[in-house]
Amino acid sequence: MSVRVLIVDDDERERIVLRYVLEQIQDIQIVGEAVHGLEALLLCQEKKVDLAFLDITMPEMGGLETAQKLNELKNPPLFAFVTVRENMAVKAFELGALDYIVKPIEQSRIEKTIERAKLQIVHKDVIDDIVRRKVKERIDFIMERYKSYEVYTNKLPVREKGKISLINKSDIVYCESQGKKVYIHTLDGGYKTNYTLNLLEERLNEYCFFRAHQGFIVNLNYIKEVISSGEGSYILHLENCDKDIILSRAKAKVLREKIGIH
Q1: Is residue 234 a contact partner of residue 252, using CB atoms and an 8 Å limit?
Q2: Which residues of 199-218 are buried (b: 16+ CB within 10 A; e: fewer)?
Q3: Cα Rg of the chain, angstroms
Q4: 167-259 belongs to CATH 2.40.50.1020
Q5: Per-residue pLDDT tens for 197-231?
Q6: Tag placement on the chain: N or C end, fewer CB within 10 Å?
Q7: What is the pTM of this model?
Q8: What are phi and psi of 17, to 5 degrees?
Q9: CB 235 within 8 A of CB 227
Q10: Using a CB cutoff of 8 Å and minimum separation of 24, what contacts does 27-32 make?
């Protein structure tokens, strides 16, 4: 596995030395260099950083303060100190430092730090995977409950990005099949779902919704106009959107019966 490393030191000569040492080690990708803590924080927010090597004494924001700020990031990187100061190790480890290396730098010492980082990264990935699977299992359980019991009959549950949104059925303007996905378009925006149109047709109130086409379900309350396009086919104009839907002669007959046009 490759470890993505950030070098943070205000002394250019020290950065050059550390970069050279890191370049001799396999599975290292240097993603950037910073001259003080604030720049390091910005880089960690812009790029994926696995491990930051921090100097203790830097202008504007020193290494210890930088470590505190790194811990507050949404996805904090590991960090290790590389410094000439020998008396700050206790404070560094209290902040969660992976290592505390006193200059001058030795390659064997840096290699040990990298190996330690790899172990923690693998451990974190395993934990994250377990959490993701547990979350998915919980969401799947909830979705099955919604399928088995008509809970919140006026709501339609839609799973997206680790959460379940409950959509008011009355807010759905139309549903459209696009390839393997079905998009639900509402007054507030769109949702990409794993539903099929056949399943949605079962779950939506038959009185309010109409299967206008093989690829569309339309909320009858949002039909603004039904326009003849010749040869027995029609076009539906919907309110609150620019979508026009073509109706076959057979579907047009069903629609006329539903909305009472004779």
Answers
A1: yes
A2: ebeeebeeeebbbbbeebbb
A3: 29
A4: yes
A5: 888 888 887 668 888 888 899 998 888 888 887 76
A6: C
A7: 0.51
A8: -65, -50
A9: yes
A10: 27/1, 27/2, 27/3, 27/114, 27/118, 28/2, 28/3, 28/114, 29/2, 29/3, 29/4, 29/5, 30/5, 30/6, 31/4, 31/5, 31/6, 32/6, 32/7
Question: Nearest CA to 21 among 67, 82, 64, 71?
Answer: 82
Whether 187 has a pLDDT exceeding 90, the answer reads: no
Q: Which two tokens stand for residue 162?
A: 């680790």
Q: Where are the domains of the chain?
A: 3-128, 167-259
Q: pLDDT at residue 256 above 70?
A: yes
CB 104 within 8 A of CB 86: no
Q: Which helix (H) or strand (E) holds 107?
A: helix 107-148
Domain 3-128: what homologous superfamily? Response regulator (3.40.50.2300)
Tens of pLDDT along 20-42? 999 999 989 999 999 999 999 99
For residue 227, the one-letter residue type is: I
Contact at 8 Å (CB) between 233 and 260?
no
Assigned token pair, 37: 């803590």
**CA nearest to 257, candidates 218, 220, 203:** 220
What is the total residue count of the chain?
Answer: 262
Which residues pair with residue 100 across a beta bridge? 81
